[in-house]
Amino acid sequence: MRLTLSSGARNMLSKNPPIALLAFAFRPFFLLSAAYAASIILGWSLLLFSGATLPISWPALLWHSHEMLFGFVTAAIAGFLLTAMTNWTGAAPLQGKALLALVLLWCAGRVVMWLSATLPWLVVALVDLAFLPVLAIYVARVLLRAQNRKNLILVVILTLLFIANLLMHLGQLQLSPWLMRQGELFGLNLITLIMVVIAGRITPAFTANWIRMHGGNPARVIRSARMDLLAIVSTALLIPLNLGGAPGSVMAVFALAAGVFNAIRLFQWRGWLVNKEPLLWILHLGYLWIVVALLLRAAGLLLPGLSDSLWQHALGVGAMGTLILGVMTRVAMGHTGRALQLVRFGLLIYIAIILSGLFRMLAAAQLIDYTAGVMLSAVFWITAFALFVVLYWPILSRPRADGRPG
């Protein structure tokens, strides 16, 4: 995904250039997403293993999942979506004071969630819930103004994410872990769908382009509209089935179908052809985690004793962590006028997130000592995202290398 601004947008940025960090949404949101990913797991680890306490009123496990889904992931979504929209529509990017206001709104949500025990429920809920509707309204206005209706589905998904978050807050008000759990699963399913849609667009396109640039035949990367539809629809159907309380056997059939269709889709993209390019194979690996999670979800519904923690952490640590880092490390280079390659020591980010996912899965499957496995997973997760902040801060906080606006 390379940015192509309209002449009007370029002129606007040239006449009123904001500071570099606020020139494009991916800059602050990617840095905040990574820093917050490390912070959540650090706080969660302290709660689990040190006996420390935090001023939170939520059950610790649900606070952890909420902040992963509606804190960490939503920042990454905002950074990607607000940047991609300029490419889709030619509109000027959200930047300067307006971008800063949106960033501060996201930050305010994180502050109240970390201090929820000291604040009224209504204050916590209103502040935390505000970010997604504001983001959705802005995205809808830009897309409608540009008559780009095909991407309005993302506005629908943002709205549904808001509803999922609302369910968690209502569950907290009613002291209902069940309702909070419904919101959590709703959010998890929606984010899975977002990954299937977005990664399904960019991964085969980037792969085919790389093969073409290196003298190969891009037609080897198969992009089948029929398989795309099957993969997306089967994944999307898990949402109403889950909300409607479908029997486990029915959920298992649809989860299995979604896993198989997404596996075929991934195979058609021929990821092994780009094994020499880390910025690409990491995207294929992240999508593989989605396939693994869907298949484990089906297996857990059919096999007694198989923990839900397996498929949920395959999604959370594996797919979300890997795909978000894969997208951020690529966009950070391409949209700042730099060559599309990993920065020095950047491979350590990928190694750390891979190890985090593997250790978390081994712990969930009880193949290693649970405490040791979770601790190692946490250490590697924090390492991966902290490294992103350290290595990409100089890139994301400075002007474009080619002197262009943005």
Automatic annotation (TrEMBL):
<keyword id="KW-0812">Transmembrane</keyword>
<feature type="transmembrane region" description="Helical">
    <location>
        <begin position="185"/>
        <end position="204"/>
    </location>
</feature>
<dbReference type="InterPro" id="IPR010266">
    <property type="entry name" value="NnrS"/>
</dbReference>
<keyword id="KW-0472">Membrane</keyword>
<feature type="transmembrane region" description="Helical">
    <location>
        <begin position="374"/>
        <end position="395"/>
    </location>
</feature>
<feature type="transmembrane region" description="Helical">
    <location>
        <begin position="279"/>
        <end position="299"/>
    </location>
</feature>
<dbReference type="Pfam" id="PF05940">
    <property type="entry name" value="NnrS"/>
</dbReference>
<feature type="transmembrane region" description="Helical">
    <location>
        <begin position="311"/>
        <end position="333"/>
    </location>
</feature>
<protein>
    <submittedName>
        <fullName>NnrS family protein</fullName>
    </submittedName>
</protein>
<feature type="transmembrane region" description="Helical">
    <location>
        <begin position="225"/>
        <end position="243"/>
    </location>
</feature>
<keyword id="KW-1133">Transmembrane helix</keyword>
<feature type="transmembrane region" description="Helical">
    <location>
        <begin position="98"/>
        <end position="115"/>
    </location>
</feature>
<feature type="transmembrane region" description="Helical">
    <location>
        <begin position="152"/>
        <end position="173"/>
    </location>
</feature>
<feature type="transmembrane region" description="Helical">
    <location>
        <begin position="121"/>
        <end position="140"/>
    </location>
</feature>
<feature type="transmembrane region" description="Helical">
    <location>
        <begin position="345"/>
        <end position="368"/>
    </location>
</feature>
<feature type="transmembrane region" description="Helical">
    <location>
        <begin position="249"/>
        <end position="267"/>
    </location>
</feature>
<feature type="transmembrane region" description="Helical">
    <location>
        <begin position="68"/>
        <end position="86"/>
    </location>
</feature>
